Amino acid sequence: MTSEAKGKKWLEVLLVSTKLGLTSFGGPIAHLGYFHEEYVKRRKWLDEKSYADLVALSQFLPGPASSQVGIGIGVMRAGLLGGILAFIGFTLPSALALALFALLVHHFDLGNAGWVHGLKIVAVAIVAQAVLGMGQKLTPDRSRIAIAVIAASISLLWQSAFSQVSIIVAAGIIGLLMFKANHTTELPKVSVPVSRRLGTICLMLFLALLIGLPVLRNMVPLHEIAVFDSFYRSGSLVFGGGHVVLPLLERELVAADWIGRDEFLAGYGATQAIPGPLFAFSSYLGAMMNGWLGALIATIAIFLPAFLLIVGTLPYWDSLRRKPKVQGALIGINASVVGLLLGALYHPIWTSSIVQPIDFALAAMLFVLLVYWKMPPWIVVLAGALAGILIKMVTL
């Protein structure tokens, strides 16, 4: 590939991921719906099965699953730099917004804003679209529908930091036992322009930092090292998406008196009102502690484990997913991911968004715009925000 062709791919990845970073409201589950629409259906950068397998892989790894999916798609499209650009494009808008919020708008309450409520209703439509689309592809028979419904039920009845990964592991074991012989399929070749040597280096660096940073923190009493260690460990040990990182960060930062509890919760509330990854909350926390430098350190530290893990595992992913046993496990995992999407559609997305009949009416109209009128997501997001303002005015 010529340098000009590479440059075009890098620019394309950056522009598309930046658009998603500016318009992907609703949290990590909704992000997967936005990604599916943009990368699979519209641009066809990868097929449905490969996308579902990449989602399953990201669910297995600690860190922000939606960011890892985006990084993985960037790597497959345009190499290591493509992954970096995909991360920058998707993360930078929310990171900048939250850092500015920390520096300039310390006491701004977004909790009752009408447009925020409208965006929550947009998330209902986006996730419902994702459940419908992925369910049709990944749960075509009653066995997989059963796995999905059981996964949804367990996720709603057992809500803990370990429930999601436990459901995925159990579904993988069930898939291994049920589907390895009868559902083995030929898969399209997915090019991953990252060598296994580089992948191994990334995995070793992940472990070295996880083990070495606490040691370095005790040896060198530098505040920046302590902050990097706290955010890196939080990003390394969280399963289940952005919301699960909240208690980890609170324990690391509030308990250490680096930030007040009220400031911490105010920033978390603001994070719900902007597009992009929930892990960008770290940008707010870092800026509260040490301005722009703190925001940069915290953001890099919390996302670095996710980046190292996804780049480290991708070179082995395509060959692994072709093995019959792995294919069977992935069939079960993919069905459970549909179930987790279904569970999340109800709680927390539906329960925190649909509180009166007019909310349901708006969600239904937005769903129709997305699924049947094929409107671009950014138009639906804008319509939802404006409708939220009108609902707030009417119901005052």
Textual characterization of the structure:
The mean pLDDT is 85. The chain is built from 15 helices and no strands. It is 79% helix and 0% strand.
Feature tags:
transmembrane; single chain; 396 residues; mainly alpha; Chromate_transpt; membrane; transmembrane helix
Please provide the count of β strands.
Answer: 0
The amount of helix comes to over 70%
SSE order: HHHHHHHHHHHHHHH
Rg, Cα atoms, Å: 21 Å
Low-pLDDT runs:
none
Number of helices: 15
Annotate the secondary structure layout.
Elements: H1 3-23, H2 27-42, H3 48-60, H4 65-104, H5 114-138, H6 142-157, H7 163-179, H8 196-219, H9 223-237, H10 245-254, H11 261-271, H12 281-321, H13 324-353, H14 357-371, H15 377-394
Helix pairs in contact: 1-4, 2-4, 2-5, 3-4, 3-13, 4-12, 5-13, 5-14, 5-15, 6-7, 6-13, 7-13, 8-9, 8-12, 9-10, 9-12, 11-12, 14-15
